[in-house]
Amino acid sequence: MSIKTEIEAYTGSITSPDIQAEALQYAKDGVRFISSVVLTNEEMVSRMSKVEELGTSTAIYDLKNTTSLDFITRYDGTRYRECIEGEASKAGLFDDVTSLHNAVITAPVYYIKNNILNVFPTPTDAQKARIGVVEPDVTFAITDTYSSLSKFPVELGPGVTFYAASNVLLNKMNAMGKPTGTTKLTTMVAGSVDTPADRINITKWFDIVGDYIADEDVELASTYLSTVQTYLQSYQSELTGDQSQYQWYESQYVKVNQLLATFLQPYIGGGGE
Q1: What are phi and psi for residue 268, nearest 5 degrees?
Q2: Euclidean distance between CA atoms 201 and 15, whole angstroms
Q3: Are 158 and 149 in contact (CB under 8 A)?
């Protein structure tokens, strides 16, 4: 089942009106959010991490898309050794052989500054550094499935769906606004009621009827009053429909947020270890 279909199961259509682009962004934000939450679980970190290598041509790593670091190691010619975290303020000392902070192959060091990961001694093709990083895959389309996402366990898909659906429903409610029932009202044309503001001004309707009666044009007054009555029936019908739709969005919004909270509970309630 596509991500689009999963979301629409809770929100109704996202194609009419077309908010697929917004829904896709909500889903991508959802992948990032769910990933950041579940990484309290060590098993999830292991399942979601990928290995990157640093060598002569690429000795540093940009962490701008990284949610979590699983491990940082450097090869010493025999085996990979875990890197020790160093202070960025001492960066100039890690490759200074005269300093007590000089990093050696048997005790490599790393530091992070401005989202850039640096390893010392500087990795080479002969002695590479390996890092395990979790970087949520947000390259998918709304028509893709969760199984197509790289390093993203499919059982996390519902959490993304709930997150995205919540935002889609909020989007729909904001676009709709509070029920007014004025769509059909603004199509009415009668007498001097010639602006949208006039057409939803009930007082003005009856002022016009009164004017017709004052002019002894009872037939025109009766015709106009009949139009107003028909119009009010249409207004009531539309208002009821608007209220029903808005209330459904509201109830679904509450529902998906409750589902999201339940989904997250094992990870934020101490059950993620």
Answers
A1: -105, -5
A2: 34
A3: no
Q: How far is CA 192 from the centre of its chain?
A: 48
* Cβ–Cβ < 8 Å for 130, 51: yes
pLDDT digits (tens, 9 = 90+) for 148-187: 999 999 999 999 999 999 999 999 988 876 545 444 444 4
Q: What distance in Å separates the CA atoms of residue 74 and residue 194, rounded to the nearest whole number? A: 78
Encoded tokens for 115: 């989202």
Amino acid of residue 139: T
Are 168 and 23 a contacting pair, CB within 8 Å?
A: yes
CA distance from start to end of the chain: 30
Residues in the chain: 273
Write down the domain spans for the chain. 3-173, 177-268
User: Burial letters for 108-139: b for 16+ Cβ neighbours within 10 Å, e otherwise?
Assistant: bbbbbeeeebbbbbbbeeebbbbbbbbbbbbe
What percent of the chain is predicted at pLDDT more than 90?
61
Q: Which helix (H) or strand (E) holds 162?
A: helix 157-176
Give CA–CA dist 112/60, Å, rounded: 10
3-class SS of residue 200: coil
Are 94 and 102 in contact by the 8 Å Cβ rule? The answer is yes
**Rg of the Cα trace of the chain?**
31
pLDDT in tens, 90-125: 999 999 999 999 999 999 999 999 999 999 999 999
* Token digits of residue 200: 């939803």
d(CA 109, CA 63): 17
Helix (H) or strand (E) holding 240: helix 218-268
Question: CA-CA distance, 162 to 156, in Å (whole number)?
Answer: 10
Average pLDDT over residues 60-87: 95
pLDDT band at 56 (very low <50, low <70, confident <90, very high): very high
